[in-house]
Amino acid sequence: MNLKKLAGEKAVEFITDGMTIGLGTGSTVNWTIRKLGELVKQREIQIRAIPTSQQTSYLANELGIPLVTFAQSTELDLTIDGADEFNSSLDLIKGRGGALVREKLVAAASNRLIIVADESKSVEKIGKFPLPIEVVPFAWEVTAKRIEGLNCVPTLRRVNGCPYVSDNGNYILDCSFGYIENPAKLERTIKLLPGVVDTGLFISMADTVIIGTSNELKVLSKKN
Ligand SMILES: O=C(CO)[C@H](O)[C@H](O)COP(=O)(O)O
After folding, report:
1. 200 C-alpha vs ligand 1 centroid, how far in Å?
2. Residues involved in catalysis
3. Whose CB among 33, 78, 179, 216 lies 3.0–4.6 Å from 127's, allowing a Cys bridge?
4. Is the dihedral of CA 90, 92, 97, 103 positive or negative?
5. pLDDT at residue 48 above 90?
6. Would you say the CB of residue 100 lies under 6 angstroms from ligand 1?
7. Domain ranges for the chain
8. What pLDDT score does 1 carry?
9. What's the 95 CA to ligand 1 centre distance in angstroms?
């Protein structure tokens, strides 16, 4: 069973006619986007979408999903996206796919954030994998040193030996903090450092997580 497909396709049920939605990035939300593309093609639903990456923009264009920008709409009804880790409070780590800055901007402009993931992304404490932090390329070495001072090991993300460059023209540092005891505090601390654009910590942003497990689909919702 493809658990990413299971969770990704389920999320389409939350999209209703006339919505303006945010489309996340990654292999799980790609299933949502493909399913949505079928509905749009069959004229079963009319929506507009803002993509969180070039990659998602290409896929949505290929499927005929109408795209807009924040110039047309500054408020989104719903965003559907993936995650690298989530805990029972629905705090997330995102950004392994490199789209964290736009993903956070789109999520923050949305009335609701739905995360789609397979069960491997569920953790007791976030921080199992390195935390992606997007930084300005200028003086990135200095920024990395400052982040290192917060007790972690930052590694510049590379592709074929060259620094990975995000859609915003920035670099990404993958930072091994180990398990993060207080994600909200860490987020505030990192964001105060010069050179940091944003972090992959998404704290109190997700409303719902749809999880594909080998037995069933599980839905976690924010406790109000
Ligand atoms: O944060 C992300 C990209 O920046 C992705 O949503 C995250 O990496 C999950 O990806 P996948 O669904 O392929 O496992």
Report:
1. 11
2. 103
3. 179
4. positive
5. yes
6. yes
7. 3-122+203-214, 131-198
8. 87
9. 6
